[in-house]
Specification:
Helices cover about 35% and strands about 25% of the residues. With about 475 residues, the protein is of the alpha+beta class. About 45% of the residues are buried.
């Protein structure tokens, strides 16, 4: 290849940056493009929030534990890096909301809290008769007259009333972002609900019409619904390991930080903390928004990204002998209503939801603490967090002894909050870069979706943009 190679630098080795590097090199091979890729990661490991602990036969996720199957990009990445056969689907089971000290089943037919079946909703003890009557107002209420963005809380309270929101919709929707639905952006988190109202007026009728019917999966004992999530048999970190192995030798540089960024003609100059300088033809910046904002502060760019709030969360995995846990309810986990006096926000019975994670005769529970306005707990010592979590769980299930071990993971100021106006903030940031640093692309959980498939999609989209810029494709 006689043509001089184009230097593409990817900053950040989370799943966004890692998938961008993989698909950039894949495109270069398949399209015979002269591209040299360098992935720079400031820590000594790749994967970002994806962290798996493999201990005593357990497979324990510190961060995300799965991804939606209907969003195809993580499945595709797993197959592309050669571990597609390791994909496992979650076992289905009853999920609950903890309200007033009791685990109440989430009504059948609920789609992100919106009822699509009237019968289970009417029979549910999650709501009073008055709350159910108020929710029925959705059948007759007109469309919202709000133009532009609005909060999830405002949108859903208008349609269903406060009780349905507090006891069902808020725990389900805010759990994804550890956020406050009275500030979370409808446009940037769940725009599909706005579109359903716009088209069908009633959310209940609209979701009933648009939600695909679940196809039963025959298991030899009758029919059971298929799980909606995938994980990997050996933990999600296996996709990080497999992807890194597929990258060309010398692609990844760990423990290196970008100190400054500047322009040199049509190229971008990166000064590293090692004293080295890299001149890049294109840069894909997959760091968090605060790091991006700090990097471009000397140029007066991306300062609007500082308006993106963050919160801290922690995961607490507890391994027990099976005989130490007595559960009266069948199911895979529960979410906690904000109205309750609990520090935990959710708990997954991992051994039931993901049977391949837990040895025979053992139980694995995974609790979550921290959300907007309630994240001080994340700063407590490990033994104090464990005590609080065990105390909360002890009000719900019978725990006869101490755990074999506990794995606590903190994500400090790490969960971006997509507040009202988020889409405009991101559009403004990209417009600034387009004017001043057109060869720099933003991608990652701070911008266009926090789920793993969303991050992979952003990495792939950035690759396509870069190739179009460099080669006019």
């Amino acid at each position: 290849m006689s043509e001089k190679k184009k230097r593409v630098v990817i900053v950040g080795g989370g799943i966004t940056g890692l998938s961008a590097a993989f698909y950039m090199q894949k495109a270069a091979r398949e399209q015979n493009l002269p591209i040299e890729v360098t992935l720079i990661e400031s820590t000594n490991r790749l994967g970002g929030k994806i962290q798996t602990v493999r201990r005593d036969g357990f497979v324990i996720e510190r961060g995300p534990d799965s991804f939606l199957i209907r969003k195809k990009s993580m499945d595709t990445l797993a197959k592309d890096v050669g571990i597609g056969e390791d994909l496992v689907r979650n076992a289905t089971g009853q999920a609950y909301i903890l309200v007033n000290g009791r685990l109440q089943p989430i009504p059948g037919g609920s789609v992100m809290g919106i009822p699509t079946k009237v019968g289970p909703f009417l029979k549910s003890d999650l709501f009073s008769l008055a709350g159910k009557l108020r929710a029925a107002g959705d059948f007759v209420l007109p469309r919202s007259g709000v133009e532009g963005d609005q909060s999830l809380g405002h949108f859903f309270r208008r349609r269903f009333g406060a009780e349905i929101v507090e006891n069902l919709i808020e725990p389900l929707l805010s759990g994804v972002y550890a956020g406050d639905i009275d500030h979370m952006s409808l446009q940037s988190t769940f725009p599909q609900f706005y579109e359903v109202e716009k088209k069908h007026r009633s959310l209940i009728l609209g979701m009933k019409k648009t939600t695909p019917k679940q196809v039963p999966q025959k298991d030899g004992h009758g029919a059971s619904p298929k799980g909606a999530f995938h994980s990997l048999r050996n933990g999600l970190e296996s996709i990080v390991e497999a992807t890194e192995q597929q990258l060309d030798p010398g692609t990844v540089r760990k423990g290196i930080r970008i100190e400054t960024i500047s322009k040199q003609g049509n190229q971008t100059v990166l000064e590293l903390n090692t004293g080295e300088t890299i001149v890049a033809d294109s840069v894909i910046l997959t760091t968090g928004h605060m790091a991006a904002s700090q990097l471009f502060a000397p140029h007066g760019l991306l300062q609007g990204l500082k308006e993106i709030h963050t919160t801290s969360v922690a995961t607490v995995a507890l391994a027990f002998p099976e005989e130490h846990i007595v559960q009266d309810t069948e199911g895979t986990g529960f979410l906690v209503s904000r109205s309750g006096d609990y520090s935990i926000t959710a708990c997954t019975w991992v051994h039931r939801k993901w049977p391949t994670t837990t040895p025979e005769g053992k139980v694995l529970l995974r609790a979550f603490v921290g959300r907007v306005g309630e994240d001080a707990i994340v700063d407590l010592p490990d033994d104090e967090i464990e005590r609080i979590v065990l105390e909360d769980l002890g009000k719900i299930i019978t725990i006869k002894g101490k755990p074999d071990f506990t794995v606590i993971t903190r994500f400090k100021e790490d969960r971006p909050q997509y507040r009202v106006g988020h889409r405009q903030r991101i559009d403004n940031a990209r417009e600034e870069l387009k004017r001043e640093f057109p060869n720099v692309k933003l991608a990652g959980a701070s911008y266009d979706g926090v789920g793993l498939p969303d991050c992979v999609d952003q990495g792939k989209a950035a690759v396509e943009e870069v190739i179009a810029d460099l080669f006019g494709n």
